[in-house]
Amino acid sequence: MAARKYISEQRDSAARETRRRILTVAEKQLIDGGYHAMTVASLADGAQVSPQTIYNSVGGKAAVVKALYDDRLAGDDEPVPIAERPEIQRILQQPDAPAAVRAYVAAGRLLYERAGALLGTLLQDGPGSDAELRSFVATIEGERRIGNTNLVRFVAERFGLPPGLAIEQAVDMVWALTAFELADRLVRRCGWSLSAYERWLGDLLVTSLCGSARTG
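Above: the chain sequence. Below: its structure as tokens.
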């Protein structure tokens, strides 16, 4: 049994290393040449594996892009959902609404640092007529909307929203203000520092969701 377990662990480790190598090559090819230039064949050549290994380890081109995005967003390839990560759990530990909102913005800054370059490359020309890229964009926007909703509901249930501000309207505000395109315009295109962007977004969201720009 011990020998069999050791062999199984070796196989798991080798499979994980193969997947990691494929995603590393995918990231370089995407950033260097863009989404449309990357193919399963080019990935296989760069990672020195067969195309079938790409499909077996990760999946097709769309699956590779999504796996790479998820790994970069999380900061590693551990099977721990974003919602269970320390930076997200920290939001739930804050003593008041402004502090929770600012913790959320800080987490968003971290995610931008991890995946901003990749996402910028994927979105720079828009999804166009590529069905797989359109599906990817729709998926990550849906995931972002879920995260926005979780924040708003947490603030509403724990601390309360300003009078007259409905939950769905608050989610719309957060969804619009935390859009990657807005961060990209300010940080990459306008030259803002990430700290300046974080302060600006934090003040704006605190004012919108809490009625004050002060952290309590």
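The domain at 82-210 is CATH 1.10.357 (Tetracycline Repressor; domain 2).
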